[in-house]
Automatic annotation (TrEMBL):
Pfam families membership: NAD_binding_10
Protein name: NAD(P)-dependent oxidoreductase
PANTHER family per UniProt: FLAVIN REDUCTASE (NADPH) (PTHR43355)
SUPFAM superfamilies (UniProt xref): NAD(P)-binding Rossmann-fold domains
Domain NAD(P)-binding: start-end pairs: 7-195
């Protein structure tokens, strides 16, 4: 497939890029700053900010992954970015896969309390989590875009192991066999590429956790 990855050189984006290339997909990294040294020889770049992407830029992709993360103090940009992506993808056949947040996952069976609503949730992370949650709500209301939103577990580990194993949930925060809510970025990337290659969560948010 031809896969565009917004934020391909960021933390999560780098794992997604590596996993997609490993599986033989054509990957175009969409970044504001093209790195001077490129580790992956078969990776090409589109040097553009997310907010100036056009329908012409993305219409030939099979999949567009957004690993966009708003700067500190500008967290409301998550909503703006989502609105822009929906607008340029409207009425195309391109699938949108979004690297979501864990803060908007629910911690109760009635699905009334988000993780960011709890006393234990750090105040510093609330602006990002709340605005990512608003962006998800906006995405749910869209009618003309094929989308999937993948939330990680509470602890999203840059240096975690690539085990190739994960378990899947829907709207609730999950725990592994040790009572921890965590997933490595490497295993998260595996989960997202599995979804791209074998769609099971179209027009849905879901989550993954270590086993």
């Amino acid at each position: 497939m031809k896969i565009g990855i917004i934020g391909a050189t960021g933390h999560v984006g780098s794992f997604l890029t590596a996993e997609a290339l490993k599986r033989g997909h054509e990957v175009i990294g969409i970044v504001r700053h093209v790195p001077k040294t490129i580790r992956e020889s078969n990776l090409t770049f589109l040097n553009k900010d997310i907010f100036v992407l056009t329908n012409e830029d993305v219409k030939d992709f099979d999949v567009l992954i957004s690993a966009y993360n708003a700067p500190e103090g500008e967290e409301v940009q998550h909503v703006k970015a989502m609105k822009h992506l929906i607008e340029i993808l409207k009425d195309t056949s391109v699938r949108l896969l979004v690297v979501g947040g864990a803060g908007s996952l629910y911690v109760d069976d009635k699905l009334t309390t988000h993780m960011y609503d709890t006393d234990a949730f750090p105040d510093a992370f609330k602006p990002t989590s709340i605005n990512m949650g608003k962006a998800l709500d906006y995405l749910r209301e869209s009618k003309d875009v094929r989308w999937t939103y993948l939330s990680p577990s509470a602890d999203f580990l840059v240096n975690g192991s690539r085990t190739g194993k994960y378990k899947v949930g829907q709207e609730q925060l999950m725990l592994d066999k040790y009572g921890k809510s965590e997933i490595s970025m490497a295993d998260y990337a595996i989960a997202m590429l599995d979804e791209i290659e074998g769609p099971e969560h179209q027009q849905q948010r879901y989550t993954v956790c270590a086993v």
